Amino acid sequence: MILSVGCTLGYQIHAPIAAFTFNVLANTDAQQRIVRETMIGTPEVPTEQIATTKGNRVLRTEVPQGPLELRYEAIIDVNRPALPAVVKADNPGRLPLSILTYTLPSRYCESDRFSPIAWELFGQTEDRAEQVRAICRWVDANLKYAPRTTDARTSAWDVWQGRQGVCRDYAHVAIALCRALSIPARYVGGYAAGLTPMDFHACFEAYLGGEWHLFDPTDGIAPDQIVVISRGRDAASAGLTTIFGKVQIGPVVVTCAPFAGVLSTTPAGSAAT
Amino acid sequence: MILSVGCTLGYQIHAPIAAFTFNVLANTDAQQRIVRETMIGTPEVPTEQIATTKGNRVLRTEVPQGPLELRYEAIIDVNRPALPAVVKADNPGRLPLSILTYTLPSRYCESDRFSPIAWELFGQTEDRAEQVRAICRWVDANLKYAPRTTDARTSAWDVWQGRQGVCRDYAHVAIALCRALSIPARYVGGYAAGLTPMDFHACFEAYLGGEWHLFDPTDGIAPDQIVVISRGRDAASAGLTTIFGKVQIGPVVVTCAPFAGVLSTTPAGSAAT
Amino acid sequence: MILSVGCTLGYQIHAPIAAFTFNVLANTDAQQRIVRETMIGTPEVPTEQIATTKGNRVLRTEVPQGPLELRYEAIIDVNRPALPAVVKADNPGRLPLSILTYTLPSRYCESDRFSPIAWELFGQTEDRAEQVRAICRWVDANLKYAPRTTDARTSAWDVWQGRQGVCRDYAHVAIALCRALSIPARYVGGYAAGLTPMDFHACFEAYLGGEWHLFDPTDGIAPDQIVVISRGRDAASAGLTTIFGKVQIGPVVVTCAPFAGVLSTTPAGSAAT
Amino acid sequence: MILSVGCTLGYQIHAPIAAFTFNVLANTDAQQRIVRETMIGTPEVPTEQIATTKGNRVLRTEVPQGPLELRYEAIIDVNRPALPAVVKADNPGRLPLSILTYTLPSRYCESDRFSPIAWELFGQTEDRAEQVRAICRWVDANLKYAPRTTDARTSAWDVWQGRQGVCRDYAHVAIALCRALSIPARYVGGYAAGLTPMDFHACFEAYLGGEWHLFDPTDGIAPDQIVVISRGRDAASAGLTTIFGKVQIGPVVVTCAPFAGVLSTTPAGSAAT
């Protein structure tokens, strides 16, 4: 699936200078290849691009007082692996340590609290893939999508008790339930085609059969329709922006759709002209 | 210094499919920040962008039979640290191992062969910075710039004996001499403003006073006028392109100049239009 | 300071096989150099030793049903850097991203909840070093050391409200307060000389003046008297042991004391005899 | 195969202080698990142990004037994967970049010079595993084992022309031939059971079917009888010791044999007694 994605982020900086990190660029690997990509700041801001060990591509910049608009546009070729038919439990003694870390509790995914619940609800089958699918179905069926009922402090345990939230909260609950079953799971931020209203999306990946597989417990969007931009233990370590300094956050416009146009053979625009 | 850099690389692929890696994107860190960047392949080729441990940003792609043109353009804000006045020898027992590795001989820089030579020529001073400057002066004064006298097999030792070569050869000799004095040194490929004729350039970095510093032994171009695109032990591990498959290499156009224009506040072009 | 440290960990494995990770070996860098080290499992268990990106040295092994005793002994030469007199706030736009991550909230350190509290209590001075020292004094003065009042689910926020706990809880509160002030802070597990009763210890490091510095908010043990064995965002990612399978945990004996003996010139014992 | 390995290295330091790195500890991963390990310096020298990205475990230390003896002993459980029956050529467009780097020429393995030779000698079969085996047979049949005919400057191309050398030279030629066929290959230093006379050994690994496999072109020692202690592009980046300062090298004793004894349940010795 070829997707056209992008965002425009507006800010008003009130301090003499503010520092930003942006994690909105498409990650790139064999599953997400870049056809075209443009990132433009107005006024022009020199940015440092940092690749993290998790594969995130973080922009970092410092901007003086005044307005800032960051605009990102990309065309991404997405090809995800199919989920194996049946997945046996991994031997934790053989999992790479960097994977094993995603079975541990984190700020928003207190998986240690979910253990008895998870085994009772999802322990009937031994197929790990089916367990993750059952978790997604349960989350979709039992949580109520309710914007503005949760905030940046809300954790999976809070959502479990309140039974409502947004995509971020759905993802946290699903991750906590996976980890409670010792299935490595991590938080994913991304662009998702077909979202209404269009916005950044949160979903998650589970490690099944030796590979990470993407799941969307909120809207059931297919993995090929999602472009990953951040990965981490939860929203605390996979945030899209970090701001240091007094800054007023302005409008956010996000786009993501199947690429329908014809790829021009003449560059549509260039940095130097 | 704000530089406008870029290249256009043409190929004709004769095999059903060919695999490429391109290492022509500006590295990015606090010394090289990106104002704008565009990379466009014609026909459209999805690429995977890989960050190496040395900071190189490698594009990898597979392309079917036919023509390929890769065009890269960027505006880069370059700020290099000043060289300290006097630099004492590092205690090798305290250097990070990842730095110490750049004191070892490599394919094109047989520093083990240069030890007596280097100490005789440059051992009078104990100031490590002055030693590197003296090496640059010596290389510039004693080698003859002579295109097509050397090739992809020519090593520093070959150049030492033949006393001629191109920027790549100058860099290899300078690196071998630095390492022979136990000064960590690494090969740098880049864009350089003021080069005649314009082309990709090769120079090197020496580790002095706890930091890497850039030197150009061929043309004496100032560090702020150079945009680094590849780093490695020598040209063998810092090559700009690797091609797998039957491919005819076409015209290469390289640009690098101080950015003179006005940075537009309206994006000059965008991926999705 | 030369310290003699060690532990003996006993287990009874009830499953046919159990997998373990042990993070009890001394980390090793310029601040912690190893004079001698022995790790012996009874019955003999082949272990894989894994170095993590944070510098932890993790042992991983699989053990069949029956008893297991792991015994570790080491002599470590500890040399910590002195804290600078006055430390200015870091520019977050310049901090390495791998450091910046330690300003974010984590499972047990919900620093996002502590912000107003931290600035009110510790915002009078601008000296970051003094802020951390004040946090340690506050934690020591206001928390009551009370074993068995907290457990593996207790977070910094819980401790803040309950005002009691053990070294792990003290560390979590101190870390959360540091991060609330945007001071990078991380959890440290280790051996500590002078502890009564002797056990593994938890303390923390704060990033001040370009370097990590060790603080013990519980017992005020000097940094040179502590041997670091694990580092992480909090106890969730810096745990000392992870066990997969049905295992009964037996006696734990920990030792840590200034090395008083004479280092023998004849090896005290050897693997092959 | 459980192997008992070790070495005793003697030095006389003539400078006030000398810096050393030692790369003689067994690497450890799922294929090489450690049952016991002891490293003792006389006089006692605190060492820093550094894990490199290639999996080497490097000791670094500084030692004052006088004698130094380093003694290492370990019991290692070695389990190597079997070579697949037939191995197809890798698609270089899909190989991880960190593997692809081992197809490039290096200081002692000028694979670029060997291309026509390698294809002529070993290009009849398309089975990559058979190509590597044929290279080993060719090297064994056509090189003469001749100590002291080569030295630290001798490269694969030199050996190709002289047709004699030691294990290090055999390995370099085999690696250069593999790389000339685009098979990733890397240099391995290690302990090898059955060597006469006993010494450190050099062999190599080829990347076949998605995994590194060990080959010994000199003595045909089975992979399970070899304990890897260093990996690198060639002897330049996989050296066993590096010495900075005026040091006289004394006797080297190396041991490696199948472990025949009974593993005692009482620790044979301990660091603290």
How would you describe this structure to a colleague?
In chain A, helix 2 (111-122) packs across helix 5 (167-180), helix 3 packs antiparallel against helix 5 (167-180) and helix 4 (156-162) crosses helix 5. Chain A folds into 2 domains: 2-78 and 239-258, Sandwich (Immunoglobulin-like); 97-232, C8orf32 fold (Roll). The longest helix of chain A has 15 residues, at 128-142. Chain A has helices spanning 97-100, 111-122, 128-142, 156-162, 167-180, and strands at 2-22, 32-42, 48-51, 57-78, 144-145, 164-165, 185-192, 201-208, 211-215, 226-232, 241-244, 247-258. Chain A contains 5 helices and 12 strands. By secondary structure, chain A is α+β, with helices and mostly antiparallel strands. Chains in contact: A-B, A-C, B-D, C-D.
List keywords for this structure.
273 residues, alpha+beta, Immunoglobulin-like, 2 domains, six-stranded antiparallel beta sheet, four-stranded antiparallel beta sheet, disordered C terminus
Give the largest chain-chain interface (CB within 8 Å): A-B, 44 and 45 residues
Biggest beta sheet attributes of chain A: 6 strands, antiparallel
Distance between the termini of chain A: 31 Å
The level 1 CATH classification of the largest domain in chain A is: Alpha Beta
Helical content class of chain A? 10-25%
Strand content of chain A: 35-45%
CATH architecture of the largest domain in chain A: Roll
Low-confidence stretches of chain A: 265-273
The rough form of chain A would be described as: globular
Query: What is the CATH topology assignment of the largest domain in chain A?
Result: C8orf32 fold
How would you classify the helix and strand content of chain A by structural class?
alpha+beta
Taking Cα atoms only, what radius of gyration of chain A do you get, to the nearest Å?
A: 19 Å
Query: What is the tally of helical segments of chain A?
Result: 5
Number of domains of chain A: 2
The total count of strands of chain A amounts to: 12
Order of helices and strands of chain A: EEEEHHHEHEHEEEEEE
Average residue-wise pLDDT of chain A: 92
Oligomeric state of this protein = homotetramer
